[in-house]
Design a protein that fits this description.
- The structure is a single chain.
- A hairpin with a 7-residue loop joins strand 13 and strand 14.
- This protein has 13 helices and 17 strands.
- Helix 10 runs parallel beside helix 13.
- It is α+β, with helices and mostly antiparallel strands and 546 residues long.
- The structure holds adenosine-5'-triphosphate and magnesium ion.
- One of its GO terms (molecular function) is microtubule binding.
- It is found in: Cytoplasm, Cytoskeleton.
Length: 546
């Protein structure tokens, strides 16, 4: 048993020693590891320190970079802001300068308009005093039919095809370059120039004051002059075609001077119903140098043109004895009457104009008032008189152009009898003559032959006679050849200074009409030179001031 106990003790001793050794070895290993760890810690600390250092330095670099860039950007922003500020200030300065300039432009424009207005008033006054003929010029727009027979020179370009331009409301410029001829670059001045875009309403607004003059007792004549197709009938009446009424009723915006004048006349008259003058109308055409009364009716009461003559009264005034007058009481009556008679007017298609007027048309609107017996005008011996329809007058035998007709008494008949319905004399207060002349034309261009060629020849001769009369008047010649044509003979009183006369020159803007345009502008210029002394008013019908 003790031996067995000794073996176990040896075993456990050995075992303890063995474990002791293992523990020792482990402890040694631990020491070693601790040392290694300490070294690694040191290395790690060193590395971390190094990395931190590097990181710090790169962060500092980055920061410096950022700061640098920030500074750059900041200064750029400051520069940009300063630049923008400067621009803004410059814009503000320009804005205020532009504002000041706009204001001064407005003021200058107002002053200019005022001065222009004053100049116009003074000019009008001078025109009144000198008795000048007022001349307006209307340039019509280029129209499709201008293209159809356009000359080859201007066929490619519509711009160069126009030679007459409205520079401003008083000046026309004609620029005409003809190959092989000297350039024409000429300006003409008139009381008013209407460009192609100016409407019928604008034209009438300028003409309208003449109607006030009419009611103030002045005789007034408005005459459209120009080559064929230049817009005379359009200006006086409005657009028309063979199928439509001669005076347009529906296209109100396009109404010409005649219907607008009728409307304005009755409007002015209605302002003072107590002293309304009576209104009578005559319609006359001068065709192939003969005068036809378009209101005259034949024995069957059919309206037909009846030939009449102009005579000189004892007082030296020109009258058409037995001329038919009809009284009208409203614009509608006036338009119905005139429209019906205008259908009788001679028309003919030419190569230049499909609806060409072949006669000169003169519509006369006569205002009459019953005079007070002691009025100075009533004491004049040469007072023209109108007669009521129930006082028939002996008529001259009439040679009808369309019918040879005996004449039927019409509503009014000037110069026939001295008494009106009240038994009092009725005095012609004032006369408004509305004249739509036939257009001058070159037979070669208009392509007319036979009867139409004869008409053309009469038209051109009568227009030449009109130009001769104006030439003689402007040069103050002793003899004025009024009697060279029926047209000038009929219009002698008007041309000689008995009326405020407005000539509206109608011209085409097209190159192919340039020669006629220059002729018309020359005619207008000559007309402006005529000085006939101040027009005298007849007996004044009191009006309500407007
Ligand atoms: N200002 C304008 N605006 C639009 N169309 C116009 C104008 N002037 C004239 N016209 C047109 O031109 C054409 C010729 O005009 P208009 O009949 O008035 O000529 P005219 O001068 O009377 O010719 P004629 O002497 O041959 O009778 C018409 O078709 C008319 O409608
Ligand atoms: Mg015409």
């Amino acid at each position: 048993m003790p031996a067995r106990g000794g073996r176990w003790a040896g075993f456990w001793e050995q075992r303890a020693r063995q474990l002791q050794r293992q523990v020792q070895a482990k402890e040694e290993r631990i020491v070693e590891l601790e040392t290694e760890n300490a070294i690694l810690h040191l290395k790690l600390a060193e590395k971390v320190k190094q990395d931190r250092k590097e990181l710090r330095s790169s962060s500092l670099d980055l920061l410096r970079d950022c700061q640098g860039q920030q500074q750059d950007c900041g200064s750029e922003i400051v520069t940009a802001v300063q630049g923008a500020q400067r621009h803004h200030e410059a814009v503000l300065a320009w804005q205020s300068k532009a504002g000041c300039l706009e204001q001064s432009l407005r003021e200058t424009t107002e002053r200019y308009q005022l001065e222009k207005q004053k100049r116009k008033q003074l000019h009008n006054r001078l025109v009144e005093l000198k008795g000048n003929i007022r001349v307006h010029c209307r340039i019509r727009p280029a129209l499709p039919f201008d293209k159809e027979s356009e000359d080859p020179l201007s066929q490619n370009s519509s711009v160069s095809a126009e030679v007459a331009h409205a520079v401003d409301d008083e000046t026309v410029l004609v620029r005409w370059d003809r190959p092989g001829h000297p350039w024409i670059n000429k300006t003409y001045n008139f009381e008013r120039v209407y460009g192609p875009a100016e409407s019928q309403r604008v034209v009438f607004e300028e003409v309208c004051p003449l109607l006030t003059s009419l009611l103030d007792g002045y005789n007034v004549c408005i005459m459209a002059y120009g080559q064929t197709g230049s817009g005379k009938s359009y200006t006086m009446m409005g657009p028309h075609s063979r199928k439509e009424p001669v005076l347009p009723v529906e296209s109100q915006g396009d109404l010409g001077i005649i219907p607008r004048a009728a409307e304005e006349l009755f409007r002015l008259i209605s302002e003072n119903p107590s002293r309304s003058p009576k209104v009578a109308v005559s319609v006359v055409e001068v065709y192939n140098n003969d005068i036809f009364d378009l209101l005259a009716k034949d024995s069957c009461a059919v309206t037909s043109g009846v030939k009449r003559e102009v005579l000189t009264t004892k007082a030296g005034k020109k009258e058409i004895p037995s001329l038919t007058y009809e009284s009208v009481h409203s614009t509608e009556e006036f338009l119905t009457l005139v429209d019906g008679r205008l259908r009788l007017r001679a028309k003919h298609a030419t190569l230049v104009h499909a609806d060409s007027s072949r006669s000169h048309l003169i519509i006369t609107v006569t205002l009459t008032t019953a005079p007070s017996w002691d009025s100075p005008a009533n004491r004049q011996s040469d007072v023209s008189v109108l007669k009521e329809p129930d006082c028939p007058s002996p008529r001259q035998p009439a040679t009808g152009r369309r019918h040879s007709a005996a004449h039927r008494t019409s509503s009014w008949s000037p110069g026939a009898a001295p008494e009106g319905p009240t038994g009092h004399m009725e005095q012609v207060h004032a006369k408004l003559q509305l004249v739509d002349l036939a257009g001058s034309e070159c037979a070669g261009v208009s392509g007319v032959t036979g009867a139409a060629l004869r008409e053309t020849s009469f038209i051109n001769r009568s227009l030449a006679a009109l130009a001769d009369v104006l030439g003689a008047l402007s040069e103050r010649r002793g003899h004025v050849p009024y009697r060279n044509s029926k047209l000038t003979h009929l219009l002698q009183d008007v041309l000689g200074g008995d009326a405020k006369l407005l000539v509206i020159l109608c011209v085409s803007p097209c190159r192919k009409h340039a020669a006629e345009t220059l002729q018309s502008l020359g005619f207008g210029t000559r007309a402006r030179q005529v000085q006939r002394g101040p027009a005298r008013a007849g007996r004044v019908a009191p009006r309500t001031p407007r």
